[in-house]
């Protein structure tokens, strides 16, 4: 079909050339010699007219033939293109140098397009695109991305971050914080010490030192007798110290209580308290909770040796001697939950220990002897614990009134008029 159409176009060209030559000859004959050659010009236009009239019919036939055969050509071209792609890929994989350069392919495509645009585009363009794009993309993109990105990220990031962060944070922050905090807390805990002595100290009376102290301070009282009544209204430690001349003595001189614990959490130790006033005074009077009385001696009180009252609770009296009180050695009145452990309570005018209306009291491992009435008297007080004591030479060893007996004993009784009475 391509040859037929080329042939028809050639005929038209020859007719146009003949018309051009005839026109040139006619002009030449007119200019040189009007009588030499006579040319029948009307015949040439007739040929041109015939050729022109037949040209639309030829082009219509050509277009019809081209349209009808185009699907067959495209099918053949695509088939040929597919075979060309396969051959091109195999040739590209075997040797890169054997591939047709892009310039040569583009020139071939241009020539065919000039002859016939429809047939030339399909077979030439497909092989060119496939042969160039596929090999380049596969060979260049994939190897570069894998080889560059993965090794660099793993090798650079991991080694640098881990070693730098861990060594700097641990050694610097932890030691500094711990050392500073401990020093501050210890500095606050180690509070001031106020020394009291008869001569040569900052304070010559116990009460003056207590007034100057703050919670947590220590007041140390040296050897000697201090004729005064002391009120402890702060959470301090009041300690008697033998500085070479014997005990530190608080002498109430028969007027009021020798020491009154008004503030909870105080510690009273190593003091000798004597000559407290008559009823309702005591050698040591406790009207607060959570106090400790340890290693003290209370002698010759005008009424009670130690008096706990007013709902004072959770107090502990230990390793203390209470003797020669006019009434009870220890009186506990409506003060629950107090403990009396390893004390000596003797030679008192009424009971050694009197517990009235005070729940959960504990008397353990104490020596209670030679008291006028009962060694231990528990009245209207539930859950009292009385055990491990040596009770001797009292008129009545243990007296229980309206109180349970299930937590009383074992105790050791020596020389009492009666060991136990339950009412």
From TrEMBL:
Gene3D superfamilies: Single-stranded right-handed beta-helix, Pectin lyase-like
Pfam families, per the entry: Beta_helix
Residue stretches of biased makeup (Low complexity): 79-100
Carbohydrate-binding/sugar hydrolysis domain residues: 219-356
Pathway: Protein modification; protein ubiquitination
Region (Disordered) residue spans: 54-109, 127-150
Keyword entries, A-Z: Repeat, Ubl conjugation pathway
InterPro entries: Beta_helix (IPR039448), Carb-bd_sugar_hydrolysis-dom (IPR006633), Para_beta_helix_rpt-2 (IPR022441), PbH1 (IPR006626), Pectin_lyas_fold (IPR012334), Pectin_lyase_fold/virulence (IPR011050), SCF-Subunits/Alg-Epimerases (IPR051550)
NCBIfam families given in the database record: para_beta_helix
Protein name in the entry: Right-handed parallel beta-helix repeat-containing protein
Annotated source species: Candidatus Methanocrinis alkalitolerans
